[in-house]
Design brief:
Oligomer: homodimer
Radius of gyration of chain A: 33 Å
Largest interface: A-B, 50 and 50 residues
Strand order of the largest sheet of chain A: 15-25-24-17-18-19-20-16
Shape of chain A: elongated
Largest sheet of chain A: 8 strands, mixed
Number of strands of chain A: 34
Strand content of chain A: 15-25%
Distance between the termini of chain A: 39 Å
Number of helices of chain A: 36
């Protein structure tokens, strides 16, 4: 005979935490806790195999199930010394669903099962609390009616409100036991009227109906949809947990509470929680009564408190992680209702992980696994002061929530243009730059702002990429905004429907970790890690946080296998990245270098040149600047490889479009205004992302590539003579066809040989390409005939694989993620789309290595700093990931996770 | 002993035309012609295996080669009754390279091989022409020096010019025999000076050096590049053809000429060609002497002419195709030097094909194979009158050559805006609309213009697609233009470097078949097929051209296997397409319907709506228009499937941007101007091709899809009640994720059921999607869970696979095709990129049919009407191709080719 029912109680559970597939997450954990000696209210779990049977056999049950349930009930009765349905000494149950993975949409809890007019007097005798009994019973009828039978909740409410009016009661608690008894009788009538049958008084019938409802809810559309969206497959079904009811509201020796085994905000090793005497769980969270500090339980119920401290120890020892637990004390007896790994802040995660290892509770490997890679960001940015933030929330100052595009908290005056931002900062103000979208014209304003807020654009829009690169908090794609540049104001439609208008100079605050925007100022606090590591304004020994950070990063570096590089365009960024642990540069964007005040004019001269000769003359002027840039970076990256990408963006990005900027160029270069306007017109493209950029520029103007290759290799030769271990990698962007790369190679290689002769020194270098056009991945075998390395540009690759412009797709990608639409669960620009983009990545690796087995492969798109994507890159066999300097620690931890999960 | 040398002569060739791999194309054909009794000058071919051996054995030859060459020379000597190197009766050879495929970049011809001071007297005796002898010898030294030894040609020219000056000669022919003899001696000295060795006088040495040079040229960079670009692989190498020299310039009974077996311009079955007495081949083509009509040879050399007419018969019977032949008469003996399939116009191809079948020369299958599918276009458009065109060329009126984006010839006054075009046409003028690029705002002007010329944009830019759809000649991406809207003028930089300025009202002509643009008018003539088939202005029995057209199309339809549908948006286009042979509609673009005068205002109202309710109200007004459109199309397509695509383009395309258009909308809808400007701003996207369009619109505004589905299915129900056999297919564009399609399906299917109830009739329909985003192809297995058919949108798919905006990529795609760049051999928007885009197409078919084996698959991008792409579609197993109405005959012929090639 198959086993369908698993008992737990009396110190022994028939299951364990490993049996989630059969018993569901909840059931497995109840059995586990019972077995390790925790005082769990006894009960039993009906396995997921029954659910499977139910659907395969036309909604019927295995014949042996009945007997097994009866036997399990008998065992519970024995442990509890009470009987289910017994008028003298009644036992009550709760019934809950529970699959292997938590799953909204399925049937929720039914409590107080077993109550009826026969068992209530016994309950009253046991508790001495008539009001409690009838109140529990009316809740049961309500819950059973709505949860099990689908009777709409408002019917019960109407009856309740009617009675309150009749007796002149203001709130629920005004009703007497007698009135509650009357309410129960009215509820029963209501039930019978709508369901067409009397309310089932027989406890066993109550139980079987409830079990039936749980299994039936497995196929409810909302549950099916949830599984589809979250790609949950391969489950047999849900399990059903039937557990003894315990009552924290039986009187002054009863109570209930929730607790963390450590402080989840700071990570401090103290017991942390709150409780209420004579109360049920929902009273603690409802906020009607103010809960008390958990330590005060020591004076109220010293024995139970001591017992609870033991439970805390047992749980941490057993689960090797901070636990979040619920308990109830029923007439002086402690019961543990639930435990789970506790959610914690990034700060706390680091402290807890380090201290648990020090305490001998966990190994470094186990500790590392408990750290969310993204959590390290909390240690590296300014954050809102927790109290100030809580206050802002309480005051309803939250304006909107959009994409968390650049981490960190910022507070400042609203400003709508880059020029104005500069002016206001120069006059001593702090500003938040608010734009519909940003462009390279706004860079100077972005640099001086505390934070950046955009109306359009996604996780890899210009604003987001630049913000992360320069470490400025950014909230992007905030479609609730309506910016009116003309009136220097913006409207924000708040969640509550109200519209707030903000003018230049009004203060807002934004949190780039949560994507939230607030009205008014919120105090922020600096990062200790940054103060020690970068600013040097604090000493390592003064900061426990810094020490924890170092410890974790040491472990992560020890375990990880895939390399972690950084995307950096300046010696300063390169230096920071090395301090954060980068092992090289995966992407230097040379175009950013052209925006400097001292060189943009030459760049514009180059673009406005009318023939190759004048273009070469302008390039000649840019060469020394580029060479100096590379010399600086090579020096900072001594011993590490440095990948430098040739010019990528369309040339129009360098041509001024605004009156003021044009005037500046006219003044600097002497080029007439009409010529600049004509060039802007000539270079205008309908879809610049798919236009004349990347390698296409180098094919049409080979002299640009020539100048850049010369700058890179001359710089390399010069620093090598200084004794620097230089490892340049020349990277050609946007290659979709081998011929493009071959064309450049034929220019570059002979030129480099010539430079070696001129410089009288040789430098090892690699010549490679970005794979960011789908065709580059598809023809990777051909491309690898020329390329010595591939670097995946997954921003562009995602853009083209999906056909989503990263500057325009923000709003509809957000729409796709809405629950009622449910097409995306994550933004493919944030987390790599393994099914689509990932297919091309794998194909390219496979085909590329077929041609060149030792092909070096990395990623330098924004995904290189996103934990799930980093793990993907490790799984598919890349040599390294590369990300912005501040994401390096995130990538290192994710890389360690990837190795530990192998 | 292996055979390396293949003899031909005396009526027998050791090879045949099937042996191209071994003997090269030229060698195989020489052997073949010899065997069928044509008087080919005897000779021999050294096989490609020798070339292979040469490269595998360090540039040496098989030991047996020497003997085989000697034997072959002896056989030639025997046939000719002369001896190689004999002073009395000398034999001379030509040496030519010849691989299996014609290949520029390899060594060219060396003539007169065997001449030296010993053999020349014999030659003089034989010909009695001393001047001819020394002239031939100096040519040989020059050719051998430059072609075989790589001595630069200008050295010889300098010596020649020096001598001419000395003797006071104006032109070459002024030199006497004696002076030419002196020239030969100076050439020999020049040769010795530069090569470092005396000129080889020994004929056998001359021959071996020449053979060596041919084999050496196989690996010349230019030849290697040519093979790489043209993807020529798998060849062993080149062969070498050594053939007896014959001289058409031996005197008055000698001559030379070229001829076609039929008229290549009209296809008429007459012998067509020209000749010169006492001349060599190069004299016929050089234009110094005016050649005579071939028929006149009948009076000059009646026997040879009769012989030539026999050759004509023999060739056509044997090759079963029109032949283009070269002949030489040496002292009254006719020699055939070469024959190949003749190039012909589209007209001629049809006439020749039909008549050859009628004459019993070919089968319909053979005839069809000889027709270039694109050639049918010549029968369907206006063409320049050949004489007028020749005159324009002679006058140097060609301005530029760009993309042949819409076939046909046009002549008219230059105009720079759509509004102005309309005005001028209304005042009775014919115009050619010239724009930097076109947009939907220009449609009204495009409709009234004779031709369209754009400065930017590729083969699938807006201008090109619309032009082909409406049948207007179009030349696109003409980067030599510089349009100045402000001054209503444009500059054109001509090939010769001159810049021409054209103003509004100046006349230009353009040829959309060749992509050429001319200054001034060129007369055009209408298409007889169109006059019969569409306009009804001519009767079928009056037009032989039409009858030929019908015959060929009948055969093609009989043989082809893949279906051919059309892209049509109106009942009129649908009707035309059926007349052209379409078997259904593969794409109806519903957006084009919204541009009508009577409905664009409602469309704009819909877009400017501020909430779902007002949007629905506007949609309600559009519904009857759409329904009527579909009713019209369904009626025209009775019995055929009709695929209708829901709204695809970004909404901003419907919002006016120009002052005048905005004013019109304000007047029509009463919507204030500020609101329109705000909407334009709100809908603006940086990369609209990758923006909010296609299925993304339907997901964010499901009410649009609802209205369209309702219009389609109500129309279907209505016509079915009329007795029409209606087969609607609802197509959702731009799907990259199954979830998108599922979202729309969940709206559409219940709605359709409701419509069936309302209409009290049911209609079979299909629900499917376009595959045009790379991710759609990659996840085709998932998408096919929902889609009942796929239609490949290869315009967008190419755009995203390559990352090339079809509106912006024209200029650099043209650059990529330049010979010195050599990255592309064809524009991937014109001919499907099999390696990249084709991979995704095949992947999608494979994965889609894995999920749904009976998945119906077609293509509706512009490639659907391009012959090579049609063949690709047939090979990969698509059910149909769909193209614009006028491309339907092209696709049908290509489809027949695909079936015949199977």
């Amino acid at each position: 005979m198959s086993k369908f029912v698993y008992f737990f109680g009396g110190g022994k559970g028939e299951g364990s935490k490993e049996m989630k597939a059969l018993l569901g997450g909840k059931g497995a954990n109840l059995a586990e806790m019972t077995s390790i000696g925790l005082p769990v209210p006894p009960g039993f779990t009906i396995s997921t195999e029954v659910c499977d049977y139910y659907y395969k056999h036309d909604n019927t049950y295995p014949p042996e199930l009945d007997t097994q349930i009866d036997e399990a009930i008998a065992r519970v009765e024995k442990v509890m010394g009470r009987k289910f349905g017994d008028p003298e000494n009644p036992l009550f149950f709760s019934v809950r669903s529970g699959a292997a993975q938590s799953m909204p949409g399925m049937m929720d809890t039914v409590l107080n099962l077993g109550m009826n007019e026969e068992t209530l007097p016994g309950f009253i005798r046991l508790t001495g609390n008539e009001r409690l009994a009838w109140d529990s019973y009316r809740r049961f009828i309500n819950m059973f009616g709505s949860v099990v039978m689908g009777l709409e909740h408002h019917h019960f409410e109407e009856v309740f409100d009617g009675l309150k009016k009749e007796v002149g009661a203001e709130v629920d608690t005004d009703l007497t036991a007698e009135q509650l008894k009357e309410l129960c009788s009215r509820y029963s009538a209501l039930y019978e009227k709508h369901v067409g049958k009397p309310f089932p008084r027989e406890p066993r019938m109550q139980l079987l109906h409830s079990v039936d409802a749980v299994f039936g809810s497995w196929m409810k559309p909302s549950a099916v949809t949830y599984r589809r969206i979250n790609r949950i497959t391969g489950l047999l079904g849900t399990a059903v947990n039937v557990q003894t009811m315990v009552f924290g509201n039986m009187g002054e020796t009863s109570g209930t509470g929730v607790a963390f085994t450590r402080d989840p905000a700071t990570g401090e090793n103290v017991f942390y929680g709150e409780f209420l005497m004579n109360a049920q769980g929902e009273d603690v969270v409802s906020g009607i009564r103010t809960p008390r500090e958990i330590s005060e339980l020591g004076s109220e119920m010293p024995d139970n408190y001591k017992q609870l401290l033991d439970v805390r120890q047992t749980l941490e020892k057993h689960y090797k992680d901070i636990q979040d637990l619920e308990f109830t004390i029923e007439n002086g007896t402690l019961f543990i209702l639930q435990t789970r790994n506790g959610k914690r802040t990034g700060f706390a995660a680091f402290r807890i992980a380090v201290e648990m290892v020090e305490e001998g509770l966990t190994t470094p490997q186990e500790a590392l696994k408990q750290i969310e890679p993204d959590g390290v960001t909390h240690l590296l940015v300014r954050l809102f002061e927790p109290k100030a933030l809580a206050e802002a929330r309480k005051e309803g100052r939250r304006l909107a929530k959009a994409l968390n595009a650049g981490p960190g908290a910022a507070s400042g005056e609203v400003v709508f243009s880059a020029d104005r931002a500069e002016e206001m900062v120069n006059s001593g103000k702090k500003v938040v730059l608010c734009r519909t979208e940003t462009s390279p014209d706004d860079i100077h304003g972005m640099h001086v702002s505390e934070g950046i807020l955009t109306q359009r654009g996604g996780m890899t829009s210009h604003a987001a990429v630049v913000a992360r690169q320069i470490g400025t908090p950014c909230v992007a794609g905030c479609s609730e905004l309506d910016i009116d540049y003309g009136n220097l104001s913006m409207k924000v439609k708040k969640d509550d429907g109200r519209t707030v208008t903000l003018k230049e100079g009004d203060v807002i605050s934004l949190d780039g970790i949560t994507g939230e925007v607030f009205e008014g100022p919120i105090a922020t606090m600096p990062s200790e890690v940054i103060q020690v590591l970068i600013d040097g304004t604090m000493k390592a020994e003064e900061s426990k946080t810094y020490q924890n950070y170092v410890k974790i990063m040491e472990w992560a570096n020890e375990f990880k296998k895939i390399g972690v590089r950084t995307n950096a365009d300046t010696p300063r960024d390169s230096d920071y990245a090395v301090r954060f642990g980068a092992e090289g540069i995966g992407l230097t964007r040379t175009e950013h270098m052209f925006f400097g005040e001292d060189r943009i004019a030459f760049m514009q001269e180059m673009i406005l040149a009318e023939n190759e000769e004048t273009r070469r003359a302008a390039l000649e002027k840019l060469l020394p600047f580029q060479r100096e840039d590379f010399i600086g970076i090579f020096r900072a990256m001594d011993g590490y490889p440095v990948t430098i990408r040739t010019l990528d963006p369309p040339l129009h990005e360098f041509v001024p479009h605004e009156e003021k900027a044009i005037a500046r160029v006219v003044e600097k270069t002497g080029i007439p205004k009409e010529k600049i306007l004509a060039a802007a017109e000539r270079l205008h493209e309908l879809n610049p992302m798919l236009g004349h950029r990347g390698v296409r520029l180098s094919v049409t103007y080979p002299e640009i590539a020539e100048m850049q290759v010369r700058a890179i290799m001359e710089a390399a030769c010069i620093v090598k003579k200084e004794g620097i271990d230089v490892k340049p990698e020349i990277m050609i962007p946007l290659v979709g066809h081998r011929g493009e790369l071959r064309f450049i190679e034929k220019i570059a290689r002979p030129l480099i040989e010539k430079i070696f002769e001129e410089q009288e020194i040789k430098v090892d270098y690699l010549f490679g390409t970005m794979i960011e056009v789908p065709r580059g991945a598809i023809t990777a075998d051909k491309v690898a005939e020329v390329a010595e390395f591939f670097s995946y540009g997954t921003n562009d690759l995602t853009q083209m694989t999906y056909g989503f412009s990263r500057d325009d797709a923000g709003p509809f990608i957000q729409h796709y993620q809405k629950k009622e639409v449910g097409i995306f669960d994550t933004d493919p620009f944030a987390v790599i789309d393994e099914e689509g983009v990932g297919f091309l990545v794998k194909l390219g690796i496979e085909r590329g290595r077929k041609t060149r087995p030792d092909l070096k492969i990395g990623i330098c798109g924004e995904h290189g700093g996103e934990p799930n994507s980093v793990k993907f890159c490790a799984r598919v066999g890349m040599n390294y990931v590369s990300c912005s300097p501040r994401r390096v620690p995130v990538a290192i931890i994710a890389a360690a996770h990837a190795a530990l999960e192998e």
